Structure formats: C-alpha cells, structure tokens
Amino acid sequence: MTFPSGPLLFLPGLLNDAVLWRRPIAALADRTAAVVADLTLDDSIAAMARRALAAAPPRFGLVALSMGGYVAFEILRQAPERVTRLALFDTGAAPEDAAHAALRRQGMEQIKVGRFAGVTTRLLPKLVHASHVAGPVGEAVKAMAERVGGEAFLRQQRAILDRPDSRPILAAIRVPTLVAVGADDVLTPPALSQEIHAGIAGSRLHVLADCGHLPPLERPEGTAALLREWLEA
Hints:
By secondary structure, the protein is of the alpha/beta class. 43% of the residues lie in helices and 13% in strands. The protein is globular.
C-alpha cells in the first residue's frame, strides 16, 4: 500500500525502544507506513544517523523524541534531501551544558562500578507526569529501559554528551515541522521547544497538558492526532 504523505521514520529517545511509538503508529496505520530506528548500537549521534539512514526508505518524514531529536538534526545535516517533513517531541537544539554533562557522567560512572538499575521508581517523576508514575505507563518505561540495557545506555550517553549544536541549522529547515512538548516535561522543558519553534520558519508548536517527557506513551491519542494533522498539512 502506498500513502500520499510517504513513510515515516520514528526515532526513540534515551533508553527507549519501538514500544515508545507503538500506539501512535497503530493509530496512523491507515495514513502512513512506519519504520522505527534502532538507536542503541552506536556511541555517536553521527553514527546513529548513518545507521538510521541506511535502513530508511529513500524519502521519509521524521518523527523524533528527545535523543531522537538530536539524531533528527544530524539526519538533516547528512541527507536533508531525503526528509519530507519533521516532527520533534520533547527535545532541544542546544549542545549539552556543563551542569547536565556532569550529572550524566556521574551516572555513567555509577553504572561502570555497579549494576545497571534502569529507570527506577525514584527517576520516573522526571520522565512522566505524576499521574502516570504508578500504572501501565510507568511500567512500560521501566520495561523499555530494562530491554535496552546498561551497555546501550552508556553508548547513548556518550553520544548525547558529544552532540553538536543544532541551533545553526534551524533556519535552513523548510519542510512542514511540528514541535511538541509535554507541559510538565522537566528534562527538556517547553522553553527548549519554543526555541526550536522560533528558529524554524512556519513551524507549529503544541504543548500537551498534563504530560511529561514521553507524550507517545502518556498521551498516545493526542500524539497521534497531532501527527495526523501534521501529515495533512
């Protein structure tokens, strides 16, 4: 089956796998074909982008969350002619600042000397809205992290630490662009999405109420509705 908007390439975030996007993809099955990239195998954003491009259709729309957004910007550097549209959820364009880098390195060292704990109950409030900490969303987040595992987590953290500054490329993005963020995201707060929106001419910004860092899990129906509207733009 062919679709007028073409296929979509979905990019997960840190410690996420294809389950992150499962419900929005299912809701859009009548509208588009979907491929979910594996971002667990490489330790640089550039290598993640190359691997995703190698497995992607010739031309595609990009849907990305958090770390996936960093990869999306790199795909736009490496192969802008292949990207037909762009949707960015809960991400930022700036490089890692010193404070966050120190916390990230501290967490990496703890894993190197101990056991990978995955996403703990204490960490969940930073990832999802308080209403989702207990219940299926929180359990899904913890299960994804366990599947991804400690070695992939370290690779992803190294990639995030060394990511380039993507703010200079924002003005060159000319494809239909959706920028979305959970209103209660504490990891990549709405101000970062507002910066992206301001930098991409003609982009649309949407803030999802009662939602944290993971709208595809926390607000799957709302996420799918935003993507459907974006596909029809």
